[in-house]
Amino acid sequence: MRWAWALPPVLVLVAAVFLADWVQGRVQADSDTRARERLTLYRESILRELEQYRYLPYVLARDPRAVGVLVDPGRVDATNRFLKELAAATGAEALYVMNAQGRTVATSNFDTASSFLGSNYAFRPYFEAAMAGEEGRFFAVGATTGKPGFFFARATPEGEPRGVVVVKVDMDRLERSWRDGGELVALSDVHGVVFLSARDTWRYASIAPLEDMVVAAIRENRQYGGVRLATLQRGPARATELVIDGTAFRQTRLKVGLLNWTIHYFTPMHELLAPRGAVWAGAVTLILLYAIALLVVRGWRLRRVTAGLRRDAAALRDLNRRLTEEVEERRRVETELRAAQSDLQRASRLAAVGEMSAAVAHELNQPLAALGMFVSGARLYQERGETGAVRENLDEIDALRKRMAMLTQDLKRFARPAESRIETVDLRDCVKTSAKLVQPRIAETGVELHLELPDTALSADTAPLRVEQVLVNLLRNAIDACQGVGEPRVEARAWAEGGQVRVEISDNGTGIPQDAQTRVFEPFYSTKQAAGGLGLGLAISARIVDDLGGTLTVSESPGGGAAFVLALPATGCDARAPQRDGEAAAREASEA
Predict the structure, then answer these.
(1) Where are the beta strands (DSSP E) in 200-355?
(2) Distance between CA atoms of 140 and 171, rounded to whole angstroms?
(3) Average pLDDT in the 169-186 region?
(4) Which end of the chain is flanked by fewer CB atoms within 10 Å, N or C?
């Protein structure tokens, strides 16, 4: 609905397209009907104008007062006066008599400068038609006067024609009536040459281009004198729409029936397109009104939104003031809380030191037991005189000493945690070292330890001693879990997977119940007998692995016992950096 506001203007435009076409079609149809009616009226007026003079040549050709001059040239004066009086009475422009050779022997304009007397008009088509016994009819520009007119001609009856009587009709009255009526009307001959028009510039110009033969024929009979025949337009003469002098017109045509004339009615296209423009103007006006209404509504909505924003701004200012006061109050409370926490930390640190000591003592029990066995073995080997074996036991005792020294560093790291040393190690070496540390316990219990290590290095950026501490604890727990089981077996295998190096310690002991697997990493929780441990080993191991950026999980092994998997990020893989600060150490000691 995002663009729903644009639907009304689109509908108005679509309606305007159809309405404009319909209106223009109606206007053109009405215009054509009106043009045909006007053309019918004009055609009747032309025929009526000419018919009132058509009888004169016929009557005069039989009147001795007019044609007697052909027999007796001495009667020319009397004939001239008779013709002048008759022309004045009938309204004819000129009446004249020609002999058989086409020379004018008497005329009504004998006493004017443009008198026809003595002129020869044998070249005119109306003379040739009259001499052939037909009615001569022709429109032409006067060869003597230069004025256009329509000519009717009749030859004398009774045998061989002695001459021809001609009446010239002035048609300027028709042009004046068209011009006064404000209508654009034109009359063209059989060739399409306009000889009467309400527009003077169109007279003696063709509606369409003329062929050379037609132009030559018009020149020969001097129908339009020496006037240059122009062309109004280059399209076909029967086209409905014409462009003349850069103006478009709609043309309506009607045959007059006299000499195959055609009368034309021209309507300017801008008059026909005016209603179409009015429709579009109305459509644009509606769209503008709609746009104004939209702007008014939008302005009203904006004012409402602005008022709402002002209210919201005031509420926000009030809220900001209250938040500022609350922040100040929180700062004051935080200052007091820090002071209380400082006192609490000092008290909890003392308790944590005691708990850490208990944890360290628990972890030292393993190497101390091994140390006792190595000392006993060294004494036995010394009594036997086996110096090499004594030296090996002494080396193992020195290694255990170093390990116990590292374990005692937990108290120091609790105070200064940044001393944890991270290096790139091969986890296979850590597994081997841890297995060697629990070897005395394996010999004591008779448990079979099986190592499954790959040929390629398992590199990880970690603290090797802390990893060995975790592995030794897991191995000792697995050895203890196998007690009382026929053919006790502990397996340690390592592999790389998914950007991590993994070590799995599994046994075929009694296993860990499903409901207890989620609690084995809690401090002071143990599945051993009451004298078997304090429940701190797995809790400390889990915290060490977490600080190293790895995970320690437990599940059921295929042999029926428990399986612990240690996963650490491989060298070069993004993982949580192994870190441990003073507060983390305090939390570990507190939980332990």
Answers:
(1) 205-206, 230-231, 241-244, 247-255, 262-268
(2) 11
(3) 84
(4) N
